[in-house]
Structure formats: structure tokens, C-alpha cells
Design brief:
heterodimer, A: mainly beta, globular, B: mainly beta, six-stranded mixed β-sheet, three-stranded antiparallel β-sheet, 9 strands, 44% strand
Chain lengths: 122, 108
Amino acid sequence: QIQLVQSGGEVKEPGASVKVSCKVSGYPFTSFGISWVRQAPGRGLEWLGWISPHIGDTKYIEKIQDRLILTTDTSTSTAYMEMTSLTSDDTAVYYCVRDGVLFTATIDTDYWGQGTPVTVSS
Amino acid sequence: SYELTQPPSVSVSPGQTARITCSGDALPDQYVYWYQQKRGQAPVLLISKDTERPSGIPERFSGSTSGTTVTLTISGVRAEDEADYYCRSTDINNNYKVFGGGTRLTVL
């Protein structure tokens, strides 16, 4: 059974950093990439970035690429998303999603984590 | 930056056909994926690579493409289909992925 299990909700002050984990099971971790997607309250889905655990390649959306750090730990089959210099605009539910092992790879299906709420408030 | 355009809302009566469009300049060259998201839940992939249905997705969901517009068609709409629908694709230079703004389907 394929599962992506994310870490729990976080509350952070503006200017702080947050690191969300996504532990994978049920498939070879390095055979697929991981995308990160967020959804602010009442808003749509926003794709943030992608990482390939196999080759370490990353892609980010331009507007937050200087604040977003995607990493993986193949020894524990865990992907991490770290976002720095948080503002209230970063308040959202953050999802990890199984994606292609190459950025251009197509997928037949995907799997989503349960989501991690991140609240940025003073 | 590259954008995908969806209508904000679509309304249909039960049993009718709903069509949700997604427009983008790169769509003739990039695949589109369609997602359904019900309130409080993670999105579910309905259509991959423009027209393919993943295992377990009902046949009433289908995808089609024509130039810079792709369409999600829901035939014989049911009350349970009321949800938000998103298209997702990739920019022409394969630098990032992008979601459409989402379409809320209301079943009257």
C-alpha cells in the first residue's frame, strides 16, 4: 500500500522558517519524484517545486525559489520541504505528491500526502 | 509567468453533461492532468495525459483536447460530483508546473 505521511501542523511567526517532512512507503523511493503543492485558505492549488530522490535534481517556481529548499533522505525514504522568511501569505495546507522521476516524465497516477497545515501569525 | 485559465464555476442538473475547459498557450505541446477536490480532502487525479483515466476512475469522466484548450467532460453528472476541479500542466520550457485557477462544479 502506497502511503505518503506528512508531519503535523505548524504555527510560525513571520520571518521564521518551517520544515515539513513526507515519509514514503509502499514503493521504491528513488523510482519517483516528489512535488510539493500548497493551498491557501479558500484558494486554489499552487505547485511549488519538485525533487528527484534518484538524481537530486530540483525545480522551483520562480517567485519563491530563494525561500524554498527541497531535500530528500534516501536512507529513510523521506522528502523535506523547508520554507524560510515566512509571511502571512504562506499560510496554507502543504501537500507532498508522488510525481515523475524525471521532471518531464509523465505519470499514470499519483499519490498525495494528507497535507500539513502551516499557519504564519504573530 | 505561464497561466492556465479555467471558468470559475459551472452548474448543471443531475444527469446532464458538464464540460470544464482549461486554456493555455503551451497545451498543444504539454500534457494536462485533471484533479477533483472535495471540501477538506486532498485532490484526486481524474485524467492523466490529456485523455487517460487512471484505474478506479468512473467512465463518466473523460478528457479531450483541441489546440490550446483541453476539456474535462463529466457525463451523467451525479450529486457526488459536486467539487472543485483543477487542470495542471507544465510551461513550454519545462521549468515549472502550474495549476489552473479551479472550477467549482455545482449540481443543481
